[in-house]
Amino acid sequence: MNDPNIKRFGYVDYLKIGVLGFALTALWSSLHSIILPLRLLDYVAESQKNTYLGLLTFAGLILAMITQPIAGSMSDRSSLSWGRRRPFVLLGALLAVVLLPGIGLADSYAVVFIVYCALQISCNIAQAPYQALIPDLIPPNRRGLASGVKSAVEILGGVALVRLTAYFMGHYFEGGGESWLWLALGVLVAVLLTAAAITVLTVKEQPGNSASGLPFVNPYKSFKIDVRENHNFIWFLVSRALIGVPGVVLQIFASYYLMDVIGIDNPASAAGNLLVVIGVCLLLTVYPAGRLSDKVGRKPIVIASGLLGAVGIVCLFFSQTYLHVMLSGAVLGISNGAMLSSTWAMATDLAVKGEEARYLGLTNLAMCGGSAMARLVGPVIDFFNRFSAGLGYQVMLLICFISFVVGALLIIKIKPQGFSTLKEQNKSG
């Protein structure tokens, strides 16, 4: 490449624009996989735990789907003197830090519900503008690399903090007292504050071009897409929503699956170990997959990773011991690692110039839509478990298998001309 600014963008800079993802992934992975499943057992009946957890997180994801495109549109059009993205990062992070203690203070399911929904809004105010930093600052033929680094940092956050959270909440589950819950929440607050400070203080971006600092945004236009002009993006959104379902299903209901199907006595610790295995395999895969997608294109990597994920679900279906579950988790980790970096790089390729935050917000809307569908698997599990013990979890795995296969095959519908420029840039670079 001939642009000298690109050469000056080193690996430390890639890390700077990915560090907030570390904190957000740590937050949501810890809440969804460990803290909320155990916290809800304080308020809801054992036979309805999947239903209540699924409905709680479904409501939060709907709010995330609404918040991200609107916050992204405001960020695209803002002209605050210290950048289009960082003010939103700071605002959303501070709101989340104020809200997090509410999970520990809650004395009923209703309070947990309200706090969780407010957390979704605040975190997505930060996330939509933050994720536009890659198309803002990175040239197209380096976005696979940038997406790989971003995904690796996010996975590292999930793995490191989930295991620590699992340790704390394992004591809470065994009746060790609320101090363990507060330790877990306190660590998440500290990590989120630190990551937001690094992003705000170290990332260099240009102020926006809007005539006003924070412009009014028509909510309808925030969600509007010209289907005729952007049909590739529509197919991508549908595919991404489906491919995202299995990972969320397994993350949310892993503790209950290990408790009810495999018979683990301490599901918090076991779920933490499983997520570490998945996370390590994600880390080993996500960076080389991102680099490879810069060379061969995004589609082959996305399709292959989706089909490999289906294989991992089959392996999990036939797992009878904790060791078998861990091995299946390794396959799923490899699949999701390749998928994360390649799909995000594809999203940055397809985002319309000048509206990057809005389009990436719509990408996350699709991901949130898939996540919301995944939450509704909770009532499905409880419904089928009434007929036969464990039947609900078999239906859960079938849903995951179908989502992987159909989501991967839909990528074929995306026409290749959107990536021809990328290949030309690779040749010239």
Task: Give a written overview of the molecule.
- The chain is mainly α and about 425 residues long.
- It has helices at about 5, 10-15, 20-40, 50-75, 85-100, 100-105, 110-130, 135, 145-175, 180-200, 220-225, 230-260, 265-295, 300-315, 320-350, 355-375, 375-385, 390-410, 420-429.
- α5 (about 85-100) runs antiparallel to α10 (about 180-200), α9 (about 145-175) packs antiparallel against α13 and α14 (about 300-315) runs antiparallel to α18 (about 390-410).
**What's the tally of helices?**
19
The Rg value, from CA coordinates, equals: 21 Å
Characterize the main sheet.
Answer: none
> Which sequence of SSEs, written as H and E, runs from N to C?
HHHHHHHHHHHHHHHHHHH
CATH level 1 class label: Mainly Alpha
CATH topological fold name: Growth Hormone, Chain: A
At the fourth CATH level, what is the homologous superfamily?
MFS general substrate transporter like domains
Helix/strand layout:
Blueprint: H1 4-7, H2 11-16, H3 19-40, H4 49-77, H5 86-99, H6 101-105, H7 109-130, H8 133-137, H9 143-173, H10 179-202, H11 219-223, H12 231-262, H13 267-296, H14 298-317, H15 322-350, H16 356-375, H17 377-385, H18 391-410, H19 420-428
Helix pairs in contact: 3-4, 3-7, 3-9, 3-10, 3-12, 4-7, 4-16, 4-17, 5-7, 5-10, 7-16, 9-10, 9-13, 9-15, 12-13, 12-15, 12-16, 12-18, 13-14, 13-15, 14-15, 14-18, 17-18
